[in-house]
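hey so i finally got around to running the thing on that chain from the lab meeting. sorry it took forever, my laptop kept dying and i had to restart like 3 times. anyway pasting the input first so we r on the same page abt which one it is
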Amino acid sequence: MTDDGPGGAPPKGARVRHDDAELLRFAARVAGLDAVAIVIGGPDGRSVRASWPVDLSGRPILGESPSPAEILEAAGGSGGALITCTVPVEEGVEATLLAAVDPASAVAEDEATASLEVLAGLIASRIGLDGARMRAEDARARMASLVDAGLSLGRQLALDDLLTRIVQAAREVVGARYAALGVLDASRTRLAEFVTAGLSEEERAAIGDPPSGRGLLGALIRDARTLRLDRMEDDPRSAGFPPGHPPMTSFLGVPVMLRGEAFGNLYLTDKVGGSFTAEDEQIAQTFASQAAVAVDNLRRFEAESRRAGELESVLEIARAVLGTLDVEALLPLVARRARRLTGADTVGFAVADGGRLTFQYAHGVDALGLEGVRVPVEMDLLESSLRETLGAPVVVASALEVGGELAGALVAIGWRPFDTGARRLLETFSSQVAIALANARSVAAERESMKETSRREAAAARDQAAAEGLRRAVAAQESERARVARELHDEVGQVLTALAVHLRTLEDEVSTPEARRRVEDLRGSVGDAARSLRELAIRLRPARLLERGLADAIEEQADRLRAAGLEVDVDVRGITPELPDDVQTVVFRTVQESLTNIARHAGASHASVLAAASGSRLRIVVEDDGVGFDPESPTSRLGLVGIRERVELLGGNLRIESSPGAGSAVVVDLEIPR
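ok and heres what got predicted. didnt touch it at all, straight out
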């Protein structure tokens, strides 16, 4: 690649230097000069713009060095009489024409001086026009950049991505070294989020916690007007920088307004090449307006998407309410949908029970700690009781009423306040579930009684006869898996490796292209088989479970699905290193098989793994938003049968919650021996 312009023409800078040199050569011939130079002086110092006969363009002049005589001598002068002429170009910029008279010239010195003055005026006009043209081109480029940046904001579909793009684009458009966007909290007195651009990861780590709104940042919060400073430290409102913060000098702050209210503030610091100008301020204000429109549009889009999801969930639950009297089948569906749509950490159902409410089902982080808990029937007392018991700051209870009587409550628990839409959605779910809950209460009570009796009898039998047997069964299964994995790796794997080597040798020996291609195809097939063999060996004997523990092994399984494009959330805070080895093995195999089934059969875009523990109880939930299936229909998925057998060997319980078109969830409850 060359520096030539379009069509092989010299670049613009080279053409300007050539034109200047030709002009100086012509002036030297007319005025009888043997050397001539143009020196430009401005706020950034002085330098040689052009000279003749020797080109010194771009050479800086520091103080009085080099002197005019030295410049002309370097330009090829022979030491003749020195002539200088200085003319203004524009505000803060002047041009000085230096010339050395040729001793052999017949032109008189006063005539040469007059010619030089005329030439200086022409050069000043030329430089001024060049500067005006460059500024106009720069303004057009900045406007085009501003338009492009504004258009790029409209392509973002996630708020976090949009905020990041805003600060990046603002930094580029205005030409600042650093940029940040502070998003105000609900009170509009502090910063809830602070997104930056220009800082390295090391600098962010050295700074520590993001600012909350002191100093100049707070000044824009209290007074939402544009603020432009050449030196931040000179403003009395400046609070300085925390340790590890890079130094910053110039400052430009612009409020981002949504429908007349401040959404946040756009901060720019350290203008490249000097201080921020009025033009920079105007561009930043325009961009802030574009950013505000983009944020507003994205919020509207997210709200509409959320409402569409809410409507679909409401219709889905309405269909389920009309189609079943089984409260155990209905409540998990409602709890999962309510937790996802409201952003709650835990959603639970409490039913009327002898003047109190008893939590019958819960889904989420505190599910096991909530199930079975008895609470007051008054909603405000229920909320305060759970806040004290669970330590969660936000508890919202919605009564389930049928015919004016309290049948139960739908309760959402979280660490962040629920907005109006989430509360409205909880009330809608409550009204739908109330009728089904009342109709199914007698059936559910009888079923629960039978299940409890069966659970106690099974527990007694397991305590007497199954403890040692289950350990041996699980150990034997894992030992056999390890043996098969070793044989696959050490024997079959070596055979495939040797075969690949022989095929490589054979490829070099065959003479025809067709034979060589067939050998190459065989090598590819052997390579594929070897890779599949290694994958099978890893699945049979997971090294991560042995080396790093259960939590990391589950995360590794999730990474395999993420690599295939599936979104997987993992929350295994309920898993501790103290879990017995046989329990860890069963939990890992359950998650492994469930995720494998999701990848192969579910057609899902999102999956999650949740582990919750309370006392000696452990619950594992693996769910997806895929096509679902009928758990009662016959299946050829031997993995599900194997999971159920392993869980039951430990005295646990496995249930599959699914229906066609509604995703699926594999729920495992285990008692942890102490």
